[in-house]
Specification:
disordered N terminus; single chain; 3-stranded antiparallel sheet; 7 helices; about 290 residues
Length: about 290
C-alpha cells in the first residue's frame, strides 16, 4: 500500500467517528467536520478586554482589495444588476454585511463588489451577468469571522487548482469555485479552496473595538470578527455600551423603495439620490425602480 493510499484511508476513517492519527480534526462525538477546529493562530485581549490585533493583521489583503465605485456609478451598476438578474437592490445599494465582512454574499461564491464591477463592464450582457452568479457548496460557511468548511457528513475536501478555479472533492461530491469572484486565489491547502480571509481564534469574552474604520471583535464562537465600515463611506465609532463599537454613516438614504421618473430608475445609495436612465443601459422602460 502506498503512503498516499494509506493517508486517504486514514482521512476517511478519521472523519466518520473512528480514532484518527492525523489532521484535519473533526469534532468528536458530533459527526461534524469543521476546518475551524484546526485553526492554530490566535490572539489574546489587551488590558481593556479588546482583541489584541489590528485590521491589517486580521486581513493582510485588505489594502489590495478593489474600491467601491462612486455613488453614481454604484447606482448604475445596481440598477443594471437587479434588472438583469433580480439581485436584491438593497443588498447592492446599501452596505450588505457580507461585503463589509469581506466574504461572499449569501450562499453564492461571489462578493457583492465583484458583481457590481461586472455590471459596470459593458462586455457583460444580462446573460453573462446571470452566469457569473454561482451557488457555493453548502459546507462552506462565510460570516463576519471569515470562511470555513463545516459539514455534518463530509471531511475537509481535497482541493485542486486550475488557475483561479478550485475543485473541491468531498464524500458527497465535487464542487467548484472561481476564487477570483471573491478577489482571492485558488489554494490547495485551503479547506474552502480559496485564499478567503483566514480565521483567527480569540477569547469569546473580547469586546468590539475600532482599528481606524474597521470594527474588530470576537464572535461568541471564538473567532475574530471583521467589519470594514469605510467601504461604503462609514466610520467605526464606540457605542454607548462600554467596550463596544459599530459602523455609523453620516449620510443615509430615506426608507423608500426605488422608484421611476419616466424611463429613469430613481435610487439612493451612500446618502445620495441618483437617477439612472434605463435606455442608457439598453432597456426601454422603468417599472417599480427597475429597468425593463
Amino acid at each position: 500500500m502506498t503512503p498516499r493510499i494509506a493517508l486517504a484511508m486514514l482521512v476517511t476513517i478519521g472523519c466518520y467517528g473512528e480514532p484518527e492519527a492525523f489532521g484535519p480534526k473533526c469534532t468528536r462525538n458530533a459527526g461534524v467536520c469543521r476546518s475551524g477546529d484546526d485553526v492554530t493562530r490566535s490572539v489574546s485581549t489587551d488590558s481593556a478586554g479588546r482583541v489584541a490585533t489590528t485590521a491589517r493583521e486580521v486581513w493582510p489583503a485588505l489594502a489590495s482589495q478593489p474600491k467601491l465605485p462612486p455613488p453614481a456609478e454604484l447606482a448604475r451598476a445596481c440598477v443594471r444588476l437587479h434588472s438583469c438578474t433580480l439581485f436584491p437592490m438593497k443588498d447592492c445599494l446599501a452596505p450588505p454585511p457580507s461585503e463589509e465582512n469581506g466574504v461572499p454574499f449569501g450562499t453564492s461564491n461571489e462578493r457583492v463588489l465583484f458583481l457590481v464591477l461586472a455590471a459596470l463592464d459593458p462586455a457583460n450582457d444580462c446573460a453573462a451577468l446571470k452566469k457569473l452568479q454561482t451557488e457555493r457548496s453548502p459546507s462552506i460557511k462565510c460570516e463576519s469571522h471569515g470562511c470555513e468548511w463545516l459539514s455534518a457528513t463530509d471531511p475537509v475536501p481535497t482541493v485542486t487548482c486550475a488557475g483561479t478555479v478550485a475543485t473541491l472533492t468531498a464524500k458527497s461530491g465535487t464542487s467548484t469555485r472561481d476564487c477570483s469572484h471573491a478577489f482571492a486565489e485558488c489554494d490547495p491547502a485551503s479547506p474552502t479552496g480559496c485564499t478567503d480571509r483566514p480565521l483567527i481564534k480569540c477569547p469569546s469574552t473580547a469586546t468590539d473595538s475600532c482599528d481606524g474604520d474597521v470594527q474588530l471583535g470576537c464572535r461568541q464562537i471564538g473567532f475574530v470578527s471583521f467589519r470594514n465600515c469605510a467601504l461604503y463611506g462609514g466610520t467605526c465609532e464606540p457605542t454607548g455600551m462600554a467596550g463596544n463599537a459599530t459602523c455609523t454613516y453620516a449620510e443615509t438614504c430615506p426608507t423608500v423603495p426605488p422608484s421611476c421618473n419616466g424611463t429613469a430608475a430613481r435610487v439612493c445609495t451612500m446618502g445620495q439620490t441618483v437617477e439612472v436612465d434605463c435606455k442608457s443601459l439598453g432597456f426601454t422602460s422603468c417599472t417599480a425602480g427597475a429597468c425593463r
